[in-house]
Amino acid sequence: MTEPAVAELGDVIERLAKTISLRKSASPAASYTASLLADGPLKCARKFSEEAVELALAAVSESPERVASEAGDVIYHLLVLLAARDVDVSAVAAALAAREGQSGHAEKTSRK
Fold first, then answer.
1. CA-CA distance, 85 to 79, in Å (whole number)?
2. How many Cα neighbours within 13 Å face the side chain of 2?
3. Residue 2 pLDDT more than 70?
4. DSSP string for residues in 73-106
5. At what angle do helices 3-23 and 64-84 cross, to 10 degrees?
6. Which of 12, 23, 71, 81 is the most exposed place for a label (fewest CB within 10 A)?
7. Domains (ranges, CATH) in the chain?
8. Long-range contacts (CB closer than 8 Å, 24 or more residues apart) made by 16-23
């Protein structure tokens, strides 16, 4: 992935997170996002889990385009889950930034 694509993804995620936040006050009958949020974190977590499994299965046997589509679903449902728990995407960015430059093995060891 090239640098502009990474920046573009970040911009898309930021816009999507803002849209999801706005949907918190929308009518569940008028917005799929609002309906998920109205059902609470457990429903959002279940939907995220379902989408993650679909992505994992697609990664094994589907086309790159299908994998990208499923990955989009996972990111969307992750953002909905975060919104359901009132976790701002900037907190996730900070958590990731804190791990930058660190070996994955070292980071996992530090959690124990």
1. 10
2. 2
3. no
4. HHHHHHHHHHHHTT--HHHHHHHHHHHTTS-HHH
5. 40
6. 12
7. 3-85 (1.10.287.1080)
8. 16/75, 16/76, 16/79, 17/79, 17/82, 17/83, 17/88, 17/89, 20/79, 20/80, 20/83, 21/83
Measuring CA to CA, which residue among 92, 84, 93 is closest to residue 20? Answer: 84
CA distance 97 to 45: 24
pLDDT tens digits for 58-97? 999 999 999 999 999 999 999 999 999 999 999 999 999 9
The model carries a pTM of 0.86
Q: Is 35 exposed, middle or buried (0-12, 13-18, 19+ CB in 10 A)?
A: middle
pLDDT at residue 101 in the model: 85
Q: Residue count of the chain, please give it.
A: 112
Q: Give the residue from 98, 84, 5 showing the smallest Cα distance to 40.
A: 84
